[in-house]
Amino acid sequence: MLNTLTGISHRTLLEDINSPADIRGLAIPELVDLAQEIRDLIIRTVSRTGGHLAPSLGVVELTIALHYVFDTPQDKLIWDVGHQSYTHKILTGRRDQFATLRQYKGISGFPKIKESRYDVFETGHSSTSISAALGMALARDIKKETHRAIAVIGDGSMTAGLAFEALNNAGHLDRDLIVILNDNEMSISPNVGALSSFLSRKLSGKTMRRVKAHIEERLGQLSNVGENILNILRKSEESFKSFFTPGMLFEALKFDYIGPIQGHELEDLIETFEGVRDNIHGPVLIHVLTKKGKGYLPAEKNPGLYHGVGPFDIASGKPQSSNGSISYTEVFGSTMVQMAMSDHRIAAISAAMITGTGLNSFAQQFPERFFDVGIAEQHAVTFAAGLASQGLRPVVAIYSSFFQRALDQIIHDVCIPKLPVTLAIDRAGVVGDDGPTHHGVFDISFLRFIPNLVVMAPKDEEELQHMLYTAVTLGGPAAVRYPRGPGERVELATTLKKLEIGRGEVLVEGDDILLLPVGNRVYPALHAADGLRKVGISAAVINPRFIKPLDDELISTWARRCGRVITIEDNARQGGFGSAVLELLGSRRLAFVRTCLLAHPDEFVEHGPQAVLWKNSRLDTPSIISAAIDLMQQKD
Ligand SMILES: Cc1ncc(C[n+]2csc(CCOP(=O)(O)OP(=O)(O)O)c2C)c(N)n1
Ligand SMILES: CC(=O)[C@@H](O)[C@H](O)COP(=O)(O)O
Ligand SMILES: [Mg+2]
Questions:
Q1: Which residues of 511-545 are buried (b: 16+ CB within 10 A; e: fewer)?
Q2: pLDDT recorded at residue 548
Q3: Per-residue pLDDT for 301 more than 70?
Q4: Are 268 and 289 in contact (CB under 8 A)?
Q5: What band does 247 get if pLDDT is binned at 50, 70 and 90?
Q6: Does the beta carbon of 82 sit less than 6 angstroms from any atom of ligand 1?
């Protein structure tokens, strides 16, 4: 590598690292230098590609130490969420491809089995790693193999029920299993919840007093031994606190607990891991303290902002300027504030995604009506149902792909009892660079079959405002799905209006073909109708607004009139909006109408810019035009 100051070129350590085997011969000072080279590479690359910078910078030493001590890939290393796996990728043969991180056709931002044999489990959604590692440990024992199973999970991800289900089961099964708790006291925003306080031993005064009184009472009943311990405890709050360690929780779950250890000290990490590797059997949890964003000052100072970033300037840390459009998420956030000012029943719930869902302002202005429940989508929905059962009008804002976790709660706790809960489904449709784990392309399919639920999708940001208002004033369960990214730059409404449930709108009249686009596909369809007019095809465009209930009358009338229908949706074809229209046409004896369903095919859509993904799935304007021309030319 060329030193730009001296003009002298020298070989970096990283240039000789092609697999973890290559780091195992290095001495500690060399590993320290290697960590710096890796950090530089991550910062350089992510400043160009965007990505999960702060989580990855926080685990550089941890990753080096794990690959140094354990015999990967025979030993199975599982990265929870996987957004912190950049060092792992660089060390496991993907250094040269790292420049393509999150680029279309480039390497993914998450572990991918097809990318490397070191990626033994795919992640993206949180809190799966302990379950997966436990499964691997059991498979190992059944097959009489000897490798280790290691889950690396963050303190944020540890708050999810799934992680606790796995700990509970692992304690019971008592097999060799290593859980590394990467504790940086951060989820995306600062971590919240009782567990988080417990890990950092920030026990509340109330808890302290209660437990202290209880112990004093119990020990006081004993003779000398009790008095001695009591005296120690009385000495200071600190010594009392030290009586409680985060380990107590895990030990109660039958794990050995080791730590907390400093996560940026390579020597300590390596020594601890070697000790565990060579001496400990059964489930063990190693508590590692790290700093999110370590080594890049702007990220250290503001780890939330640099959790996931777009391209930025390294020197100043400033993100590349956006084009100034307001996003759907921002409109959701401001509309929530607008509604909550006059309706005191409105509450907002986020599952550890306050900024991502645009709820910062609501949280600041209405702290008593805002709840960040941690990474707990299932709980978020049932908690909302509880609020709604007592007269509140909760809005649960969660990304489409994370709502997948809460399907049972939506059905069982919200829709069967018809409770007035609004599901604000952000990131509906393809999200872009995060890829298949994060695309929100299934929600139409998994919500459409639920009785009592009204499902809406706005064509633009102004319609989103009215749909939110319609949802919270409905008096029953409602869902509004809206996409990632900028709106259509339309003017926002100052007065919110209630839409008539199940009523669509005719945007363009036409006789030859009916275009039925959903949500963010409405504008591309309008442009397509313009294009079709130029080649002599008269296309009608209807914005259905409601995916459920459908405007049966309007759609049937226009389908009969045009004789050809194209549905267009940023959702999977299977069970999607197009399927709903086919069901309608069948039930109305309109099966003779020629149809074409434009939607994502029955495969997982890869990562890449949204525009590319829409084009690939034939959901952009030119594809709609060519589908219409094809349908016009179709003969029996
Ligand atoms: C089920 C689910 N909900 C929400 C998210 C969004 N998300 C990604 S990372 C993250 C925070 C994770 O915190 P932690 O595990 O402590 O990792 P850190 O980023 O601090 O390293 C969240 C909420 C997700 N990936 N999966
Ligand atoms: C890893 C993860 O799940 C989140 O950080 C996600 O990548 C955020 O996506 P947005 O950038 O769309 O908020
Ligand atoms: Mg964390």
A1: ebbbbbbbbbbbbbbbbbbebbeeeebebbbbbbb
A2: 98
A3: yes
A4: no
A5: confident
A6: no
Is the link from the previous residue into 549 a cis peptide, with omega within 30 of 0?
Answer: yes
pLDDT value at residue 529: 98
Atom of ligand 2 nearest to the CA of 308: 5
- Catalytic choice (122, 377, 463, 569): 377
Residue 481, beta-bridge partner list:
425
pLDDT band per the 50, 70, 90 thresholds, residue 87: very high
* 377 catalytically annotated: yes
Q: Which residue CA neighbors atom 11 of ligand 2 most closely? A: 308
Between the CA of 602 and the centroid of ligand 3 the distance, in Å, is 34
The residues that bridge with 600 in the sheet, in sequence order, are 572
81 Cβ below 6 A of ligand 2 = yes
Q: Name which of 141-155, 320-334, 491-505, 556-570 the model is least confident about.
A: 320-334
Catalytic residue, chosen from 76, 94, 292, 545, is 292
Ligand 1 binding pocket includes 186 (Cβ within 6 Å): yes
pLDDT, residue 218, reads 66
pLDDT > 70: percent of the chain: 92
Place of tokens 């064509």: 459
For the chain, how far is it from start to end, CA to CA, in angstroms? 65
Is residue 296 marked as binding? Answer: yes
Tell me what percent of the residues of the chain surpass a pLDDT of 90. 87
Q: Per-residue confidence at 245, pLDDT binned at 50, 70, 90?
A: confident
Mean pLDDT score across all residues of the chain: 94
Strand partners, 348: 370, 395
Fill in the DSSP letter of residue 150: E
Asked about 463 being catalytic, the answer comes back as: no
In 3D space, the residue among 300, 290, 304, 403 whose CA is nearest the CA of residue 64 turns out to be: 290
pLDDT in tens, 548-579: 999 999 999 999 999 999 999 999 999 999 99
ipTM of the complex: 0.99
Q: What separation in Å is there between the alpha carbon of 447 and the centre of ligand 3?
A: 31
Q: Is residue 431 lining ligand 2, measured as CB closer than 6 Å? A: yes
What is the total residue count of the chain? 636
* 184 annotated to a ligand binding site: yes
Q: Which of 45, 151, 21 is nearest to 93 (CA)?
A: 21
Q: Is residue 400 marked as binding?
A: no
For the chain, what is the radius of gyration of the CA atoms? 27
Q: How does strand 76-79 pair with strand 370-372?
A: unpaired
Asked if the model's pLDDT at residue 232 lies above 60, the reply is yes
Give the start-end residues of each E strand in 68-126: 76-79
Answer for the pair 290, 185: CB distance below 8 angstroms, yes or no: no
From the CA of 160, give the closest atom in ligand 1. Answer: 1
Closest atom of ligand 2 to 188 CA is: 5
Other C-beta atoms lying within 10 Å of the C-beta of residue 92: 24
Domains of the chain: 14-201+250-300 (3.40.50.970), 206-244 (no CATH), 328-481 (3.40.50.970), 505-633 (3.40.50.920)
Tokens of 625: 């035009």
Rounded Cα gap, residues 335 and 77, in angstroms: 43
Q: Is 405 an active-site residue?
A: yes
